[in-house]
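Entry 12.
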Amino acid sequence: MLSSASSSSSSGRRPYYTGKRYNPDGTRRKKHGAPGIGTWCLAVLLGCIIVIVLKANGDDDAKTILRRDDSDVWVEIHPDLSEKNTMHRELHTRFHPHAQIRGKKQWIVSGKHGDGYAHMAMATVLANGTVLVAFQTSKEGEGKPDQHIAFTYGERKAEDKISFGKVTRAPTAKGGGPGSSELGVVWSPVLHTCAETGKTFLFYSQSTKNCRAPGGDVKVIVLDPETQKWSSPETVLPYSKGNINKVIANTLTVTRDQKTWILPFWRERGRCDNTEVSPSAGVLVSKDKGKTWKAHGSITLPNTWLIEQTVVELTSKATNYDGGGGDGDDHDNYNNNNSVNRLAMFCRTAAGHVFRIDSNDLGATWEHKAKPVFALPNPNAKLTMKTFGPSGRYRTDGGGKNWIVAVMNDHKELPQPYRRSRSKLRLIVSHDNGKSWTRLASIEEGIKPGLRHHYPTLIPLPKFAYGGRESRGQDIVDEEGEIEYEALIVYSTFIMKGFDSKGVTEGIRAVLVRMRLPD
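Predicted 3D structure (tokens):
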């Protein structure tokens, strides 16, 4: 046996394993020493560099990288593009959705306006081009007996700013009026200006006298553009129908043919309710430009409420919606801008995500089951959506994408000590009927225990005279012939009671956004 092993080794074949490494010729390899101090220092240095880069550029919740720009907001920069590579950045901007904050965020009202509490801001552009912002306000706090609706008017005299005037009470009339809480606490204004008649509608809800509860009767007053006078209040949907509060909070949706108006509302129980009716979500529908209204839908979901809904009109063939993560229908033509009588309603919930319900008949009936939109987290806070485009309406082939633009708090409920905070107020878009979503820009990223940047409202802005640019209604055609849109976002900032308010200014803020949404 010994002679056999010896001959095997001498012939160049590798010997049996003995726990040591050998070279192909049978000679033993030299043993390498442990890594030196220089190697370890280099590894630590590289690790630190990677961490610093990720923390500076990364955002765990978004698919894109968000970086801070000179105006103290966050804008999208594609992770594969270098800031120094101008040509590639321009190409990315040209063929991908893009949003740019115009100027700086501005205060519409702050705590100094006279009433310490201001919330639920809503905006519209009047027939004469003036911007009207309405909000609920009180010296004592939310839902207190003096809560009423207040106004402020703004004029756009510069490209990047709207100048707002003093705060005034909304109209008070013999029948009460939203500027007075004499008949009950007034809640949640919703504004809409009719493109055809120029009339401005102010919807609101009013509680039963001595009954503090969100909502009550849904009422409306109308501004005549010629006389500049508001009408007396009329009840659109009474509390007495089911003896349950009716509440509104989001913008009214008008279909592209201008024939159908949809106002989302929900039913919520209060201290004075004497009813067996369950809280639920629904819509008010008008086929005669706001003269008459009919309630549709009573949508519920176990273990969470569905409130503060926002409604958008869809185009092309309906999506087989699967929660924002599946394939849907591969034959959907998302670039066909023909209306299909289809709506999507997105709701605030306490389940950690936005939920969605669809209608195939412009709100007359709704799906029986709400579905989670996993791509849109929700910290139990209001979100708002509007459709922009399709810009293809200027084309003869009926093409062009229909963009859904959302503004919302882009996170779930946060852990302590930030559980009652709301941050990451972001602008998010979809071009495929809500099947997928892209983060474009961020309005607020600041976080502090109890601090809330929330309850956004988004409205399109009319044309503004830009040097060297042609305007078409709400669309701005730039030098390359691409379509851009402009919008106003208003939202509330305040800190919850019991938290440190040092350094916090409370009130209602506004920001102008320009978006390029390609076909």
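Annotation: The first strand starts at residue 65 and ends at 68. The CA atoms of residues 47 and 53 lie 10 Å apart.
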